[in-house]
Amino acid sequence: MHFEDPKLILEIFSTFLNDGGIIVSIIPNFSFFSFHKLLCYLYQPKILEIHNLMNLQKLENMHKIDGFSIVNSGYLGKFSLGIPAYGVTPRTIFGTDYNKHREIGNKMTKFVWNKLANTYDYSGNSVFAPYIYCVIKKN
To answer: Which of 18, 31, 62, 129 shows a CA-CA span of 20 to 30 A to 73?
Structure first.
């Protein structure tokens, strides 16, 4: 979330909905133990500076708006290196060669996917999921 007061933004959006309308919020998973938060901290800390960092509980609390109920919330997606953005000055912990970064990212992704593949269904895992989401419905 890039807003200073995300709850206020949701309340404004909610005025556009009819009864039964829904709002779906999907934000980067920057929870305390999130692998993506660690990667951003190591690789592109400016990404963390521009976000209002939230975990799932904070996201759910933000969505507790009068006249709405939470339909669903949780962690979304498998492990991904897609959150660090282009155009934001990165740290050069792996040098400045884009192909080297891609090679390291591919190796990291394969390693994590292979390690998790035989242990449990890692889709929706709080540590490795790249996003968190919340869906609310107007009563």
So the answer is: 18
As a 3-state breakdown, the chain gives helix, strand, coil percent values, each rounded to 5, of 35, 20, 45
Q: Are 72 and 135 in contact (CB under 8 A)?
A: yes
- pTM value surpassing 0.90: no
Write the pLDDT tens digit of every residue in 34-69.
888 888 887 777 778 888 888 999 999 999 988 999
Length of the chain: 139
Q: Are 47 and 83 in contact (CB under 8 A)?
A: yes
Q: CB neighbours (10 Å) of residue 3?
A: 11
Alpha-carbon span 116 to 78, nearest angstrom: 10
